[in-house]
Design brief:
By secondary structure, the protein is of the alpha+beta class. Helix content is 37%, strand content 22%. The chain has nine helices and 16 strands. The strands form four sheets. Strands 8-7-9-6-1-16 form a six-stranded mixed sheet. Strands 2-5-10-11 form a four-stranded antiparallel sheet. Strands 13-14-12-15 form a four-stranded antiparallel sheet. β7 and β8 form a beta hairpin. α5 runs antiparallel to α6. The model has no long low-confidence stretch (mean pLDDT 94). The structure holds (3R)-3-hydroxy-3-methyl-5-(phosphonooxy)pentanoic acid. (3R)-3-hydroxy-3-methyl-5-(phosphonooxy)pentanoic acid binds next to α4.
Length: 365
């Protein structure tokens, strides 16, 4: 039973992939061509999503970072369409009366201007809070599947620590969800230094990139084979043995392979810029100077770097980057491993939701 007029708030983190998801076998429900392994990040890189179901709202409302989103138009972005679809599916599953609508309010812990992708943490926070507010008692795997449909990479944030998204084989995607490889206390020294060099919107969205790479890249097949048959098995073992050097090598090679197939896509997809290249060279130099691999760079669909390292080297790495005169840094966020999503109590957010709710009831919006 859904509790009307009660606010539920969930907090969920983003994640950084060590082996990346790129290319799908089904774009409707985000089924990937390869399994991917990631580290869940902490509350510095997270989303809080609150939800309130009520009979006093004339439709569903979604606010992301204080902005009302149009979730009804047919021309809205893919991710919003999925949110609309999931919302309908879940309301139906909970047997909600037609006169019950909801207000969703979602906000990131990091500034939107940081240029970090927020769809992963947003998707998992929404899936988690929906399941709780509608008392659906969904299993973790089901919440992971729900989140996958909104944002593929988001399905890995269902767990803290180190997580693997199994690509699955079923056509309906019921076996394409994430499992936890290690919880956050297994290797607590791991850190992600996120170096923000650009806050612009990306030129090619990942949704389009997933499709055009599969359609046009000649190198893509070789990458798939490499990720599935070499990188993932070796990475699982390296993680289990806390073998940082092997893990770091795989992380860097996988990022390079991803950006190689992106460049090999037609029209080419170029996410890295001169700042990204400076960071790559700084990390390689640091490893050389230390006579061992102390850090690994990795890049998603953008120029901002994630440098995976252990707690002892954070200062040294940041100092090296700050001394590089050719590198223009906007911001640096250091993240530990984060936990699974959780329900929280947050007065400030509760008040914001109540204010919007009142305005909506009085037709002030
Ligand atoms: O989840 P999407 O559709 O935004 O795809 C993002 C994929 C990468 O971030 C580039 C890699 C990954 O596995 O997170």
């Amino acid at each position: 039973m859904v509790e009307l007029n009660k606010i539920f708030i969930a907090q969920a983190s983003s994640n950084i992939a060590f082996t990346k998801y790129w290319g799908r076998r089904n774009s409707q429900i985000n089924l990937p061509n390869n399994s991917s392994i990631s580290m869940t990040l902490d509350e510095n890189v997270s989303t809080r999503t609150g939800i309130l179901f009520s009979k006093d709202l004339n439709s569903d409302y979604l606010y992301i970072n204080n902005e009302l989103q149009n979730i009804y138009d047919s021309l809205i972005p893919e991710k919003l369409k999925f949110i609309r679809k999931i919302l309908d599916e879940m309301k139906q599953k909970a047997n909600l009366n037609k006169d019950v609508n909801c207000l969703i309010y979602s906000e990131n812990s990091f500034p939107t201007s940081a240029g970090l992708a927020s769809s992963a943490s947003g998707a998992i926070a929404l899936s988690y809070v929906l399941s709780a507010a509608l008392s659906l008692h969904l299993k973790d795997s089901e919440i992971s599947v729900m989140s996958r449909k909104i944002s593929g990479s988001g399905c890995r944030s269902i767990y803290g620590g180190i997580v693997e998204w199994k690509k699955g084989l079923e056509e309906d995607g019921t076996d394409s969800y994430s499992i936890q490889l290690q919880n956050e206390s297994f290797w607590p020294e791991l850190r992600d230094i996120i170096v923000i060099v650009d806050s612009q919107e990306k030129k090619v969205s990942s949704s389009i990139g997933h499709i055009t790479t599969v359609e046009t890249s000649i190198l893509y097949k070789a990458r798939l084979n490499f990720v599935e048959n070499q990188e993932n098995p070796q990475l699982r073992k390296a993680i289990q043995n806390k073998d940082f050097e092997t893990m770091a090598q795989i992380i860097m090679q996988d990022s390079d392979s991803l950006h190689a197939v992106m460049l090999d896509t037609w029209p080419p997809i170029i996410y890295l810029n001169d700042n990204s290249k400076e960071i790559i060279y700084d990390v390689l130099d640091l490893n050389k100077q230390n006579n061992k691999t102390i850090a690994a760079y990795t890049f998603d669909a953008g120029p901002n770097a994630h440098i995976i390292t252990t707690v002892d080297y954070i200062d040294k790495i940041i100092e090296t980057l700050r001394h590089n005169k050719n590198l223009k840094i906007k911001d640096i966020i250091v993240s530990k491993q984060g936990t699974s999503p959780k329900l929280i109590i947050n007065k400030e957010m509760t008040n914001k939701i109540l204010k919007i709710y009142d305005d909506l009831k009085q037709n002030l919006i």
